[in-house]
Structure formats: C-alpha cells, structure tokens
Amino acid sequence: MKSNNKYNTSLPDIVQEVLAAESLIRPYIRETPLEFSPFFSSISGSQVYLKLENIQITGSFKLRGAMNKMLSLGDQEKKQGTITASSGNHGAAFAYILDKFNIKGTIFLPENASSSKIDLLRLYGADINQYGDDCVLAELQAKKTAQEKGLIYVSPYNDIKIIGGQGTIGVELERQLKKIDVVLCPVGGGGLISGVGGYLKNKDQK
After folding, report:
1. CATH of 11-60+160-202, one of 3.40.50.720, 3.40.50.1100, 1.10.3720.10, 1.10.3430.10
2. Which CATH class is domain 63-153?
3. Helices (H), 89-167
C-alpha cells in the first residue's frame, strides 16, 4: 500500500522508520518501565499495564520523536536553524535537545501560554516567540517563519521522523511483555498512535 504524500508512509516503511529510530535515539532516551496496575486490572477484568512515559527525561513520550527528527538532520540543516510550535511537552523536548546538542532553534507559543511553561522552556535557553491566542495560530506562524527564513520546521506530530521516534515505545513494549492484546494511546496530533500502532500491527508483514 503506497501513500500519495510527500513521504512514503506505507505500513512496512513505518516499521523501518521505527527500527531506525530505535537505533538512533536509544543512547539519548530512557526505556521507561511497564508497570502492572492492580486497580485498572480489577475494574476491567483483564491484565492492565501502564507505560510510564511520565518519567521520560523531559516528562513525556515527545522526547522520542523530537530526538529522532533532530538527530536525523544533516550538519547543514542544523546550521540553518530550527523552529517549532508547542506550548507543552513537545516544546520541552525540543528545548532540551537544542541545549544538549547546541543547535539553534526557536519555539512559537500562543500569547496566552502559561508563565510556568514559558519559564520551563527558558531554563534550557530556548528562544521564545509568542503569537496569536491559540496553538493553531502559533503553529501556522512558525511554519510561515520557517519558510520565509529557510529554517527547518520540526512538527510536533506530522512528520515521519516524529512518528518513527514515538513508535519506539512499541519496540520497548515487545521487550517488556510477552503477549499484547490491546494498546491504548492518547491521541492529539496522532504521532504517537501512528508510530506505536504502525509498528506493532505491521512489523511482521513481508
């Protein structure tokens, strides 16, 4: 099955993206625990486990995708500078990576972003721009700025490298649990479910 998008995102290709991301980002992320939940197991009549991405280095799974995208950039692309839009976990992951690898980057936030989130991003020394009164307007402005200034736009979700990075959760789940019947993922932009689902459901396809 082929895609008409800019990137070829047929299912076997997502599997390869996840496996490539696993090799690339493994030294820079945590393999988070998978913990049995007595409470959810008892009320559901099943065996429920929780993947503790809240103890990932920057506090969420977003580090996986952002790390994969940034490490996939060539030296010239890094010199061009990078830009993203996020008022939350993706922004924190992006800022952490900028600081760790000394990469130039800017984060667009809505004007009503909380001061605590802004303070967190600035702890990493990130360049902050605020625009509009919601996340969509900030994202559109970040994309426009990237095009005008020749910067690399790092999407929070809509990028095969982001999807591949998030999908490394699926690789860890395989190591941590012998039999998996169902995986439940939160969905915002869709990068997490695309990566985890694309990997686990299609890794055995030839």
Report:
1. 3.40.50.1100
2. alpha beta
3. 89-101, 115-123, 135-149, 160-166
